[in-house]
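Feature request disguised as a bug: please show the residue count (368) next to DNA processing protein DprA in the output. Example input:
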Amino acid sequence: MAPADWEDWLRLLATDGVGPATARRLLAAFGPPAAVLAQPRAALAAVVGEALAQRLRTAPDGWASLRQRTADWLDHPDHHLLALGDDAYPSALLHAPDPPPLLHVVGDWRALHTPRVLAIVGSRHPTPQGSANARAFARALAERGVCVVSGLAAGIDGAAHEGALDAGGPTVAVVGTGLDRVYPARHRALAQRVAAHGCLVSEYALGTPPLAPHFPRRNRIIAGLAHGTLVVEAALDSGSLITAEQAMQMGREVFAIPGSIHAPQSRGCHALIRQGAKLVETVQHIEEELLGVWGAAAAPPAAASTAAAPDDTDPVLRALGYDPTPLDVLQARCGWDTAALQAHLLTLELDGHVARLPGGLLQRVARG
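Example output, currently without the count:
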């Protein structure tokens, strides 16, 4: 995109009161941003009202700083701006409601055009089993040529990106800040890996902080880029349910992994299943539903199972089951004395078969 073009796009969208819907209304009325900004006040007022028309006639506050910051940012070869109408703009978003007029991208924008795309979202506070499920599903999907889209958030999002990267990617992270920031900060290294094997995407201008209203809005982009959305774990008030609802409204498939009826992180998934989301236990269940969109999958590479023999034969694991369980209940089930049980649990924990949850609960971790 030529400097004159991106500057016009950026200035239009930086104007207070110009969101995606208003921008599209102006573009439909007058043509490209340069033409919008060249309109007389009266013409603009006829479309968006007098107050906004007046603001469009003057540079927004901080415009010179934003323009220079963006120009410096675009000097990097892996930094891109994609506007509505560009050939590089993802076609999936063009057919979604409320497409963002301008996308900031770090990394390889071609990842946005992968033929097979699935979103994986879920709780920021997952159980160990939930994290393991997200990682395993993402890895298996990536091995089958699927691009995994998520939101770079703590918990399930981060595990999904990591699983896809473990299989060689690509993966796409849609964030709710400017791309000169990483939120949460502890995902800085993960963001760099995503950019190296896919891309980071934001509709927000550089310098935009992590404001709460931005994250529900970015969820529509996650849902819009993907052919379906998999919810791994989600409480009833989880933002992941917003992504799922938006996917349903777009006519996209929604999948949910069931969990324990006693776990708060499973209640959102169970609610989605009651609303018609597809219950899935394997990646094959997802592929079967999306066969008409994706076509037949390539066989994944053969890999040794990461689950060791104790998963099938250990008496403590059989007694533990897959629900979060207090120590005293586990002891009653298996009949071991406290010292022997604690010692064996430590071995299982070190081997990755058992995790300790808040409140003194234990949970078996099935590894894929």
